[in-house]
Amino acid sequence: NAGVTQTPKFRVLKTGQSMTLLCAQDMNHEYMYWYRQDPGMGLRLIHYSVGEGTTAKGEVPDGYNVSRLKKQNFLLGLESAAPSQTSVYFCASSYGLEQYFGPGTRLTVT
Amino acid sequence: AQSVTQPDIHITVSEGASLELRCNYSYGATPYLFWYVQSPGQGLQLLLKYFSGDTLVQGIKGFEAEFKRSQSSFNLRKPSVHWSDAAEYFCAVVRRDTPLVFGKGTRLSVIA
Questions:
Q1: 3-state secondary structure B82-93
Q2: What is the Cα–Cα distance from B15 to B44, expressed in whole angstroms?
Q3: How many Cα atoms sit within 13 Å of B81 on the Cβ side?
Q4: Cα separation values, B42 from A34, A70, B23, B26, Å
Q5: B103 at the A interface (CB within 8 A)?
Q6: In the prediction, which pLDDT does A40 show?
């Protein structure tokens, strides 16, 4: 089992560019999550999904969109990147209450 | 709304010394509680969790945590710290119908 994987690991964007982060899990988990981690802020939930075809907003959803077309994949999109979106992004999945995290994507927006 | 407070932003301990990282939560009912560890440049790894039952829970890497309902606390402890324990530690709380809420983390430094 690969667990939770994230693509890419690093990315640099210019302001206004768009990109999609991919999260994949091979544990057949129903729930998937996207977090961002900023120094001194801990992890903050962006969006989450309780099953294929469903998504919901978390604590900091503005500027992001998500899609869950397949159970194993959860995509995070930035339509027009801003410097405030420079962060480390973590994906997680869960069946019950315990979440399993991916290795993270470090995104820099210049 | 539920919240998690980790009062210590940064703690430094000597190798071999004992460790206690504090975590307080704000929630009306008994929550489900977790401690995660994040080594530099890595993702989060679950150390231990409390759902119910015995209030002292054992985790991986020699860590334990005690749930104290009267103090709304779930402090993490280790009797003897190793240099490899240097990392950031996150306390988190969840209930069945809401996503996980994290504290802001405590960074642990270990000195010789």
A1: CHHHCEEEEEEE
A2: 23
A3: 21
A4: 16, 26, 22, 28
A5: yes
A6: 84
Burial of A3 (0-12, 13-18, 19+ CB in 10 A): middle
A40 strand-pairing partners: none
Q: How far is A82 from chain B (nearest CA, A)?
A: 23
Residue pair A88/A10 in contact (Cβ under 8 Å)? The answer is no
Say which DSSP state B71 is in: G
**Chain B: residue whose CA lies nearest to A4:** B43
Report the 10 Å Cβ neighbour count for A77. Answer: 14
CA distance B91 to chain A (A): 10
* pLDDT tens readout for residues B40-91: 888 899 999 998 888 999 999 999 999 999 999 999 999 999 999 999 999 9
CB contact under 8 A, B100 and A99: yes
pLDDT in tens, chain A (110 residues): 679 999 999 999 999 999 999 999 999 999 999 999 998 888 999 999 999 999 999 999 999 999 999 999 999 999 999 999 999 999 999 988 889 999 999 999 99
